[in-house]
Amino acid sequence: xxxxxxxxxxxxxxxxxxxxxxxxxxxxxxxxxxxxxxxxxxxxxxxxxxxxxxxxxxxxxxxxxxxxxxxxxxxxxxxxxxxxxxxxxxxxxxxxxxxxxxxxxxxxxxxxxxxxxxxxxxxxxxxxxxxxxxxxxxxxxxxxxxxxxxxxxxxxxxxxxxxxxxxxxxxxxxxxxxxxxxxxxxxxxxxxxxxxxxxxxxxxxxxxxxxxxxxxxxxxxxxxxxxxxxxxxxxxxxxxxxxxxxxxxxxxxxxxxxxxxxxxxxxxxxxxxxxxxxxxxxxxxxxxxxxxxxxxxxxxxxxxxxxxxxxxxxxxxxxxxxxxxxxxxxxxxxxxxxxxxxxxxxxxxxxxxxxxxxxxxxxxxxxxxxxxxxxxxxxxxxxxxxxxxxxxxxxxxxxxxxxxxxxxxxxxxxxxxxxxxxxxxxxxxxxxxxxxxxxxxxxxxxxxxxxxxxxxxxxxxxxxxxxxxxxxxxxxxxxxxxxxxxxxxxxxxx
Amino acid sequence: xxxxxxxxxxxxxxxxxxxxxxxxxxxxxxxxxxxxxxxxxxxxxxxxxxxxxxxxxxxxxxxxxxxxxxxxxxxxxxxxxxxxxxxxxxxxxxxxxxxxxxxxxxxxxxxxxxxxxxxxxxxxxxxxxxxxxxxxxxxxxxxxxxxxxxxxxxxxxxxxxxxxxxxxxxxxxxxxxxxxxxxxxxxxxxxxxxxxxxxxxxxxxxxxxxxxxxxxxxxxxxxxx
Lengths: 494, 225
Description:
Chain A is of the alpha+beta class. Chain A contains 11 helices and 12 strands.
């Protein structure tokens, strides 16, 4: 089958014919499958019909033979002769064959002149040509041995059936040829369809490869597999665009914000080289420059970490753990610092909180929030860390889900609305915060971590102060009973 | 101490070698992986400082794996510009004992070198009691005494003190404390470590007049008589 399909396709698109083509393979598989199943189906019809005809002839002869035997038993050769004559007279279709001979082979009754030589009275089926009246016909016969050397031959002329069989064979053969042609046509059509789909995907992706990131796969809205592929590819492209935007934003920010400490370090060194009067001044300048360069390093590290988290690569480290000991661990680290700054640090935590995520990273997020809260709080302020599971929220997939609600509240300088909206941008620092140490990357890192956990970071005013809230949906399957041994974690952390 | 330094960047190599020689160590230098590997296999060192990315086809991880396959247990400190957590894990899995990312301060590197060598020597006999001057801690009973006076410490304060005692006489950096005592591998913005050390000082130093915990400028802390 392959040759016609190939030549057909070659005629349509000569330049595109490749033996290693998926569309050609699909078309071939389709065609071959179609033709083979048609062959099987038609053969079944042929065997079924022809077999039924043969069977009916054989059945008629068998029934006839039984009737004749019983006549033989009752009244011997003369009765049988009579009934054979009777039958032949009544045979309107003129297709019955009978012959009764005695042990010498002499004709006694029937419409055949003599016993055919090749036929033995062994109850087997034979097909033989018979010469009757004017025509040469084919007959199906069976011979029986009777007592006293008599032999009986019963048969049916099946030339009519042979004709029918020939006709059927011809018809089915033609049907098969038609089906094959249809298969070739269908295969070709499938190949075209397939190529069409592939081409539309590859056209779009090629356009994107050449830099047109705004192109998207067309979605027909029919919700079929093609739409599914188109949607998946579009989602992938959206994500790539977002990541690229992120990269662009970061490179802009780096150009901007890394220059500052580098410039400072450079100026300090140059100034010292030109104006330092003694070794002490020189050393002091160098120390300051090293400090500024360390600052550059830490900014680089924070940026890389944010980028790494945003790329989603670290999701493989997600595990199920009890959040409470992890939070208490961080609190323990910051409690002393808060106390040192003259702040009151309150914790509002449940006893257990099963959570699915990256433990170390989540701790870092909370540490950054506490860091900020401590940094921007006036003495005697109160900082509160609270966590709870809220179960009323509707999740994006439409299911009612559980939500982790973690918040850090302070009574510090707070932020205005405008700054809150931009707070999680890289390097953003509110006007009042310009004089405190920091790089403006803390909340950006928290944001990246929260997003990695599919959550949201929200800022709200506490007047005075700021509420930083993290909301993370807890996957239903992962919410196990509080029986998960929290003690285990405690041991690990202790 | 005999130290092997495998590092391809000449500035960094000379800087480390100079610093280590000044503190009285004998430093052998190699500028590529091949030389480094042959030195490391043929001679005996107290510690090997290994850059991860080296020219000439033989990189740091390869040297490290080869050494460990040969049953060589010399402590290895990996030096690398690859700062991601996964890279650190890969380095430690290959048999590295510690990992310092570039850029680093010399004091950090030196502190870690000394900690590694000390750990290597101490590992033989497990200790149940540590003593520095008149300060004594019992690791089994988790008790602390100074000048025969009992001192009550929080569990974390005890671990902090234990870490300092185990590294007595050496500089311990803030990062080392954060990693060794709290098991955190990130850099807090505020001076959390200083606060905790100062609280410890309140308990073990202040009532006794003579301080044992010393601040080393630009480096970290040292517990010393």
